[in-house]
Amino acid sequence: MNESQIMQLKQYIEEAHITTFYGGAGVSTESGIPDYRSREGTYTKMEAANQDPKKIMNRRYIKNNPIEFFNRPEPERGKVEPNSAHKMLAALEKSGHDIRVITQNVDGLHQKAGHRWVLELHGSGRTWYCMDCERVYLPHELQRDKDNVPRCYVDNGIVRPGVVFFGENVQPENLTKTKETIQKSDLLIIAGTSLTVFPANQLIYEFKGRRVVMINKEKLPIQQLNVDLYIEAPVGETFAALNAHYNFNL
């Protein structure tokens, strides 16, 4: 990342009528949330321990093996806060830029930063629901049985996070809204995503606008889509550098 790239990014944002920010796990790693497929990623570590993410992070596994699922060892995390990417995007929106966030993440950090237009493609961990009756719960409302399995207090069903796991489909209305948003945007910023998960890796090809920016630690093979600006750097670090030209109080 160099100064000329940051200036070019600023110019693209200033010239755009509608900007879609299409983000993946790499947007939140600087907030302390691990990604999935990097060397230290959640799924990489599971595979190193001879665990199959596609089998375990699956609706059927939760239903048939709730004790094992809810008692999996998970990394300890402190309080997770938005980083410069989340904050800068929200500040740009608040200043009058039409920035529309489509995220593959389920952490709610864009909303916590104050962003108003956020579409969570893979659901959200901010709400849970009963797998039997679909009653919705907030995380602090969960009641767990003696085996640490969250249970619905009406029908004793298993209560799980409201996220899209392997073997589940993205909500049709979210797919439709994602396609429509990307199609009407004139700037597409693809950031912090490996573009390996279907259908998220195909939705970018709905873009018919003017410019594409990619911000990622490594280049990705994108067919049929010309990238006008590629910034090989962490996403938060990039937006922190961009803020030097805006001086928002992040």
Core attributes:
250 residues; alpha/beta; Rossmann fold; 6-stranded parallel beta sheet; 3-stranded antiparallel beta sheet; 11 strands; Ssirtuin_cat_dom
Write up what this structure looks like.
The protein is elongated and about 55 Å long. It starts with a helix and ends in a 7-residue tail after the last helix. It is 30% helix and 19% strand. The protein has 10 helices and 11 strands. It has a domain of 154 residues: 3-Layer(aba) Sandwich (Rossmann fold), CATH 3.40.50.1220. Helix 7 links the parallel strand 2 and strand 3. It is an alpha/beta fold and 250 residues long. The strands form 3 sheets. The chain has a 6-stranded parallel β-sheet, with helices on both faces. Strands 5-4-8 form a 3-stranded antiparallel β-sheet, with no helix packed on it. The mean pLDDT is 91.
CATH architecture of the domain at 1-33 and 82-122 and 171-250: 3-Layer(aba) Sandwich
User: Roughly what fraction of the amino acids lie in strands?
Assistant: 15-25%
Oligomer: single chain
| Count of separate DSSP helical elements | 10
Structural class: alpha/beta
The strand count comes to 11
Biggest sheet record: 6 strands, parallel
CATH class of the domain at 1-33 and 82-122 and 171-250: Alpha Beta
Question: Ends: how far apart?
Answer: 21 Å
Average of per-residue pLDDT values: 91
Shape: elongated
> CATH topology of the domain at 1-33 and 82-122 and 171-250, anyone?
Rossmann fold
* Radius of gyration, whole Å: 19 Å
The helix/strand order is HEHHHHHEHEEEEEEHEHEEH
Write the CATH homologous superfamily of the domain at 1-33 and 82-122 and 171-250. TPP-binding domain
Q: How much helical structure, as a percent, in the residues?
A: 25-40%
Domain Deacetylase sirtuin-type: 1-250
EC number: 2.3.1.286
Protein name: protein acetyllysine N-acetyltransferase
InterPro entries: DHS-like_NAD/FAD-binding_dom, NAD-dep_sirtuin_deacylases, Sirtuin, Sirtuin_cat_small_dom_sf, Ssirtuin_cat_dom
